[in-house]
Amino acid sequence: MPEPSSPAEAAGHRWTAADRALVAGLRRLRAVADADELLITTITHGHRGRVRSYALLADAWYG
User: Fold this and answer.
1) Do the domain assignments include residue 24?
2) Measuring CA to CA, which residue among 31, 30, 38 is closest to residue 57?
3) Is there a domain that residue 60 lies in?
4) Cβ neighbours of residue 49 under 8 Å, at least 6 residues apart?
5) Does residue 49 sit within a domain?
6) In a domain? residue 61
7) Is residue 62 within 8 Å of 10, Cβ to Cβ?
8) What is the top-level taxon of the source organism (predicted)?
């Protein structure tokens, strides 16, 4: 998936079965490990893009 240009575009992304399975697996892993956090690495180039990527992830995860 190319980098979204806005949160609205990211929110409009059509999730595949593989996407949903990955997120479900991460939620199970977090629950089984009783983890307070997940460490995620993005492949976004540049500091500003990485910070934005992590902000979008946090918004999606925590709402």
Assistant:
1) no
2) 38
3) yes
4) 3
5) yes
6) yes
7) no
8) Bacteria
- Structural element, H or E, at residue 58: helix 47-62
The pair of three-digit structure tokens given for residue 30, joined into one six-digit string: 């977090």
Please state whether 18 falls in left (phi above 0), alpha (psi between -120 and 50) or beta.
alpha
Residue 17 neighbours by CB distance under 10 Å = 7
Task: Please give the tally of structural domains in the chain.
Answer: 1
Q: Which domain holds residue 59?
A: 39-63
Beta carbons of 2 and 10 less than 8 angstroms apart: no
d(CA 57, CA 52): 9
Residue length of the chain: 63
- For 9-48, the pLDDT digits (tens) are 777 878 899 988 998 898 899 899 999 887 888 788 788 8
